[in-house]
Amino acid sequence: MPVKLNGSTSGSVTIDAPAVAGTNTLTLPAVTDTLVGLAATQTLTGKTLTSPTITGAVLSAGTTTVAPLDFTSGTNLTTALAGAIEYDGTVLYATPTASQRGVIMAEQIILLQSAYTLTSQTAAQKLFNAPTNGQVTLTAGTYEFECAYSLSAMSATSGSFGFALGGTATFTQFYSTNAYKNTIISNAGGSPCTTYNIAANTNISGLNTSTSGIANISGIINVSASGTVIPQVSLSVAAAAIVGIGSYFRIRPIGSTTVTSVGNWS
Fold it and tell me: Where are the domains of the chain?
């Protein structure tokens, strides 16, 4: 049966767990009041809370269908509040000190644990094969990315290698690269080549006969229409080159498609 407590200033109600499983509703009082003392064995599941303070609560374990904590998309505070965590439907934010709202980085990462042999061709092709398609599906927004990879078994004919972003998403890109085409172990046979690019596919290394190379790439991608994005590599001379173990690509959202700053900038 329902229990209701009326008080002019304060009050408390202790609710014992039912002897058998059932449906129980707890209606919280004013948003300035405090819900205190949830024991480690008690859970608060499936409730919408509007601003009350919860002290000493322990989140229930997640399941395959229910997350321990789930934020509903909303509108960020006009003035960032120290200690606040917010979600605007694009990224999560945290404010460690007054007015200094920042993005909580939620990275998606692909990493080669086994060497991957490329198809012998000059056209851009996927850089990763595990998972099979080597692609990530992104929604509209602005993303920061970083990529590093090594190549071996390239053609001994003088040539270069490149980097590309393919896929079905509609996007613009801005990225810088630092690449060597040389013998990786001895670091001989080539000079570093630094580039800044906005094109979909660009040669990023020096032109020489070395069969090995390395590249480090970082940049921004602005996705205006959702779809897949595929990190890619290209070779100016076709060969069944090998992408080395430890090669990786990581990408994280930083805001909407029109974001210009996050934080206490002026």
Answer: 1-62, 71-104, 108-255
Query: How far, in Å, CA of 96 to CA of 223, rounded?
Result: 28
23 — pLDDT class (breaks 50, 70, 90): low
pLDDT in tens, 43-98: 555 555 555 667 777 888 888 998 888 889 999 999 999 999 999 999 999 999 98
Domain 108-255 sits in CATH at: 2.60.120
Task: Judge whether 198 and 173 are in contact, CB under 8 Å.
Answer: yes
Percent of the chain at pLDDT above 90?
62
Q: Which one, of 181, 179, 173, 216, lies nearest residue 197 by Cα?
A: 173
User: Of the candidates 215, 261, 202, which has an alpha carbon nearest to the alpha carbon of residue 241?
Assistant: 215
Distance CA 193, CA 182 (A): 11
CA pseudo-torsion sign 157, 159, 160, 166:
negative
Give how far the C-alpha of residue 265 lies from the chain's centroid of Cα atoms, to the nearest Å.
Answer: 23
The rounded distance, in Å, linking the Cα atoms of 147 and 149 is: 7
d(CA 31, CA 26): 14
| 32-41, 150-159, 222-231, 242-251: range with lowest mean pLDDT | 32-41
Smallest CA-to-CA distance from 28 within 57, 4, 1 is with: 4
Using only the alpha carbons of the chain, give its radius of gyration.
26
